[in-house]
Amino acid sequence: MKIKIVKKIENPLLKRKELIGVIEHNSSSTPSKASVQAYIAKELKVMPKHVEVKRIISSIGASRSDLLAYLWKEREVPVLSDKKKEGKEKAKEEGGQTATAAQ
Question: What is the per-residue pLDDT across 19-32, written as a single tens digit (0 to 9) for each?
Fold first, then answer.
């Protein structure tokens, strides 16, 4: 995944920067908001709690998506996580433990 910020709009009234960009995700599905939040925080060297990913819009059949994110100065937003992946991994671990205990 590679994110290119096309436009940065300073909004001093709301104390935020509005980031408009393009996400290149070759041969993979559209990235989650959690992974985009972590990527932007790492690249811009800010805390993830100050990055709010508003929209990820994918084009049909293309390996690129449009992005709208806010970079807050004071407001804190929830730090997202990949809950689906965590749930699947946990289910696999529990399933493997019950199968070995039954034998």
Answer: 999 999 888 888 99
Distance of CA 75 to the CA centre of its chain: 18
- Is residue 20 within 8 A of residue 56, CB to CB? The reply is no
Domains along the chain?
2-102 (3.30.70.330)
Q: How many CA atoms lie within 13 A of 67 on its CB side?
A: 32
- Structural tokens at position 34: 């959690």
Tokens of 95: 């399933």
Residues in Cβ contact with 29 at an 8 Å cutoff, skipping those fewer than 6 apart: none
28 has which bridge partners? Answer: none
Sign of CA dihedral 13, 20, 65, 41: negative
Residue range 58-79, pLDDT digits in tens: 988 888 999 999 999 988 887 8
